[in-house]
Every structure is written in structure tokens, then in C-alpha cells.
What does this fold into?
Amino acid sequence: MATNRGTWASRLGFILAAAGSAIGLGNIWRFPYATGKSGGGLFFVVYLLCVLLVGLPIMMAEVLLGRMTQSSPVVAFRTLTRRRSPWILLGWMGVLTGFLILSYYSVVAGWTIHYLVLAVRDVFAASSVESIRGLFDALMSDPVANVGYHALFMGLTVAVVIGGVQAGIERWSRVLMPTLFLMLAALVVYCVFLRGFGDATRFVFAPHTDDFKPSSVLSALGQSFYSLSLGMGAMLTYGSYLSRDTGIPRSSAWVAVLDTLIATMASLVVFPVTFSFGMEAEAGPGLIFRSIPIAFSQMTGGYGLGIVFFVLIAFAALTSTISLQEVVTSSFIDLYGWPRRTVCLVSGAAIFLFGIPSALSGGSVFGGSMKALTGKSFFDWVDHLTVNWMLPLGGLAIAIFTGFVLDEAVRKQEFRQGTTWGAVYGVWLPLLRYVGPAAVLLVFAQSSGLLRLLGINW
Ligand code: TRP
It folds into this structure.
């Protein structure tokens, strides 16, 4: 059955592609900001615990289900359960989540291309602080640029995924990931010499106990989940291209280590740059699209650094959009046997179309009226639904399925197959069965307002 689906050429190919999925916009602006604002070093330690105790075990479960069935999510759950089992819906939810996330992620990724063009044209140096800030608002209210760059980014994504597992995804990950790492490392070295480096390290790593609230634990958990691309079958799909003699625990650990390393390095660039030029740490996309370009306009070598910075973010975003597109693509190939090319083009076009309202969300006509009606723009709705609900629900279900539904003998045998780290099984299983689900349920109780209803003020 699994003969011509494609496989990774090597273990390194898998690690780079999976790290590419994990490392994305979430690492570069979401992580630094969350850390700085929610307790610095304390948040950092809690985040590491979340990755280690909750994220990593669920990642191993996803990779295990994929490697075991050599199938994308829908077919994987169909293979492992009875006919018409409700678990098959979990596979479909993964496909839907991938579709939805990609539709707006590609819009933000498109902004990085717009900023790359601005950096190359040296627009920042020639503008005043006020007009640099204004560039972002101008972009938000420019429907043509938003839709155009969204189309361009979807085009790039589809072009890579059409190439298939080895010649498309793995080949591009092997180029983009090391380049990304080198560029980021060079920026970190540069930033060590900036005035604001000391302030930045204190902001990120010194424990600010006052800012650390119980809700910081929940945001650390949510961030670890999002950052590791869990809960929608992305890691399951990439695991399905692994051969059975590539071990699961060690490869997964590598992915988690790389993801965390890049998030840490990004913090050591974003804040030194921001603080050295007298700017505040802003929330959300304002940080990389508003504050950082101002800093680049004022620093020595800012022209080149600005280009490197936006190329880096675009690369990080591209390897993530590739994996989202691959979940959708691979599911339809496995289910119906359609040609990869057709599936890619049709689903890519559908995702592009569905993303148009998100691309128009910053504008006053569409975005403004939607916001007035429902309190959130279309973009915000899709983001909220997927990140706060669908991903945690998917993660919870995957943990329960792998931890309780899968036959013990099969699970143990699969985990131990191909690895010298088989003994980790004894630690992995209880984490997957109890710690993971408990943590996700807590996130749910928080995001649904249940905790507030019970009078617990997190
Ligand atoms: N991990 C990505 C980031 O940090 C975002 C993401 C979440 C994702 N879920 C995903 C990417 C699933 C690919 C597949 O930006």
C-alpha cells in the first residue's frame, strides 16, 4: 500500500522538515513577546517544562501513529479502528485545521515578503519614524497588496509541495533550515554588541515574579503546542514518511530542541534591536512589522540586516506553510489516489480563496464591518477557532487515542522499534496518558471561560 507515497531520504531529512514545520512565525514574534511579558525567566522555565512534559510526548505519539500506518491522518485512523469509528473524524478535523490555519498564516507570511521588498528598496532608511509606523497601517488597508502577497506565498508553497516528499519538501528544508539558522546566528552575534543587549537578556531571562500569573502557565502551554505544530496531524503526516527503522524518541527530541533553540535565539535578536533604539516591546505583529524596521533604519548596517531579518522570517514561514499544505495534499492522495499535482493545485487554490477574507481583514470596509458585527475580524475568528480550540482538541484526542485506545502490545512494540531509547517508553506513556490530557483540559477550561465561571481567576 505504502510503496509510492514517498519517504524521507534520511533521518536528517525528517528532522529538518519537521523542525521546519515547527519553526515559524510563532517562534519569531509570538515566543519572544510572550516570554518578556509573562514573567521572563520564570515563563521560560515553565515553557521548557511544557515542551518536555506535554509537547514532546504528544509529538512522539503523532510520529508513532504516522510511522506505524505509513498514512496521512484520515487513513491512519481508518486503519487503526473499526469501520465508521468516530476516531476517523479526528483525521478529518486535522485536514480541516490545516486548511484553516494555512488560509490566514499565508496572509501574514505574505506581509514578510512585502517588508522584504521594502527593505530591499531601502524604504526604511529614507523614512521618518512616524512614516515607518504608517507603512504597516498602509499595508493593512491595501487589499491588492494583501491578496497579491497571499497569492504569491500560496504559489510558493504549492510549488514546493508539488515536488513531493524528497524532491520537494526535503530538498527545500535542507536548503532553507540551515540558511535560516546561520542568518539567525549571525544576527545574534551582531546583537550581543548592541547597547540594549543587557536590558534584553534581563527582559527575557530574569525571573519577573510579579508578571508571572497562573494564566502564564496556560499561555506557556498553548505556545508550546502551537510552536511544535501539534494537534492537527502535521507531525503524523511527516512521521508517515519515516522508515520503520528510524527511531521515534530521539528524532522527536531533536525537533523540539531545534524549535526551542530558534525561539530563544529569536528573542536575543528581537529585544536587543528593539531596546537599543528606545522602543517598547509591542504585542503582536506590531513588534516585527513596526518597531524593528524603525531600529533598522537607525543602526549601522541596518540595510543588510533588515534584508536578512525578513528573508529569515519568510523562510521560517515557508517551511511551516509547506507542512500545512502537505497534510491536506497527502490526505487526498491517500484517500482517493488522485495525482499529487492535481490535489496540490486544487487544494492550494481553494485555500487561497478561503484566505481572501482574512487578507481583507485589516481593511476598513470588510474588516471594519465584520469587527463591528462580531467583535473580531474574519482573520481573528479563524485564528481563534484553530489555535484555541481545534489544536488543543486535536492534541487531547491524539493523546487519548495513543495512550488508551491503541493496543498496549502494539504501542510498546512500535515505540521500541528502531531506537536504542526504548526505555523512555516507561516515562512517555504516563505523560501521554495523564499529564498531557490534564494540561489540555486546563487550557480548555481557561479559554472557554469555565474557570472564570467557577470563580477561579486565572
Ligand atoms: N509551528 C508553527 C509556528 O511556530 C505554526 C503551526 C501551528 C503550524 N500548527 C501548525 C505549522 C501545523 C505547520 C503545521 O509558527
In short: The CA atoms of residues 28 and 266 lie 5 Å apart. The domain at 11-453 is CATH 1.10.4160 (Hydantoin permease). The chain has one domain: 11-453. The two ends are 49 Å apart (CA to CA).
